[in-house]
Amino acid sequence: MKAIHLYSQSGPDQFVFEDAPKPQPGVGEVLIRVHATSVMWQEPTWPETWKTPAGIERQHPIPGHDVSGEVVEVEAGVTGIAVGEAIYALTEFWRDGAAAEYTVARATDVAPKPRTLGHLQAAGVPLVGLTAWQALFEHAGLTSGQSLLIHGAAGGVGSMAVQMAKWAGATVIATASAHNHAFLRTLGADEIIEYTTTRFEEVVHDVDLVLDTVGGETLERSWTVVKKGGMLISVASPPSTEQAKAHGVRSVWFIVEPNREQLIQIGNLIDTGQLRPITERVFPLSEASQAFEQARQGHTRGKIILRVENEE
Ligand SMILES: NC(=O)c1ccc[n+]([C@@H]2O[C@H](COP(=O)([O-])OP(=O)(O)OC[C@H]3O[C@@H](n4cnc5c(N)ncnc54)[C@H](OP(=O)(O)O)[C@@H]3O)[C@@H](O)[C@H]2O)c1
């Protein structure tokens, strides 16, 4: 099969489109014919990309842990999934991913593809949808009437989080540059701050939650906008525990996990018109290098997708 192999963490010739062995599913796993995956431009630098949980170095990993496709083989121990089913999933980060014609996933990570989405749109959902869901509902326990500030609201995680928080009945303040303001209003954001001209900490006070998808200085400047006893979650860089203590704020950093049940709930929101994935651009798999380069610019609206054309 054809696949993208990652040859280094950065630099030219990082992504190579070449032949790769077709993966073999094991017990409890399924083989998926990939229709599309998404780009997570930081993936080449993640430790999980280069080492298995058992500490084995991975030479030329295949990126892309979002997958939308069709189940073509089910192994022993798999229940509730049939060959031919259209599915979507977030697969474990230490595995070879879905920037390939075929990929393998644990059956327990795989959910039916939302019926109202094509594969190209569906591939942009699992990673960012689960990240937003787990941040808002598992870690923050967000409830109706609460307020939150979302940094990077127009991005992959942010655009999901804005919609999910509105669905949950929260008041959403979002940061984005001017060209994304009208877009964010269509997603339901109540207030939008132009972060290039306004210091958000001068206009936002006492929110229940900050969800930071930007990190760095944006994270550092966020402590004072959270009310005492509130929460600051970052998925971009770990918040300082000293700062959390000093400001009387709970802080959370986590790494998203695959979750079939949550993908089913997210799929229901999509199929009932309450959540829509945002696709910035679709590239063919062979142009993964250009796709990652565009994402690396840091101004993607929603997700960049890789379309996989299966030769069989
Ligand atoms: N921990 C985890 O499990 C996990 C899971 C998923 C993602 N992540 C991480 O979360 C981060 C976000 O991922 P993503 O895919 O959502 O990012 P992304 O799509 O690449 O984010 C791009 C967006 O960020 C906005 N942006 C850039 N600088 C900003 C700033 N200073 N203030 C406000 N918005 C700004 C841009 O909006 P404008 O064009 O308007 O500037 C753009 O829409 C990444 O660091 C990623 O690695 C972590």
Describe the structure.
Strands 3, 4, 5, 6, 7, 14 and 15 form a seven-stranded mixed sheet that branches. β12 (226-234), α8 (241-247) and β13 form a beta-alpha-beta unit. The chain is built from ten helices and 15 strands. The chain has helices at 47-50, 119-122, 126-139, 156-167, 181-187, 200-203, 216-220, 241-247, 260-271, 288-296, and strands spanning 2-6, 15-19, 29-38, 66-74, 86-90, 102-106, 110-112, 147-151, 171-176, 191-194, 207-212, 226-234, 250-253, 279-284, 303-307. By secondary structure, it is an alpha/beta fold. The chain folds into two domains: 2-125 and 277-307, Quinone Oxidoreductase, Chain A, domain 1; 128-253, 3-Layer(aba) Sandwich (Rossmann fold). α3 (126-139) packs across α4. The chain starts with a strand and ends in a 5-residue tail after the last strand. Bound molecules: NADP nicotinamide-adenine-dinucleotide phosphate. Residues 42, 127-128, 131, 151-152, 154-158, 175-177, 180, 195, 213-215, 218, 235-236, 255-256, 295, 298-301 line the site of NADP nicotinamide-adenine-dinucleotide phosphate. InterPro entries: ADH-like_N, ER, GroES-like_sf, NAD(P)-bd_dom_sf, Quin_OxRdtase/zeta-crystal_CS, YIM1/Zinc_Alcohol_DH_Fams. It holds the Pfam family ADH_zinc_N_2. Residues 10-306 form the Enoyl reductase (ER) domain. Keywords: Oxidoreductase. It comes from Dictyobacter formicarum.
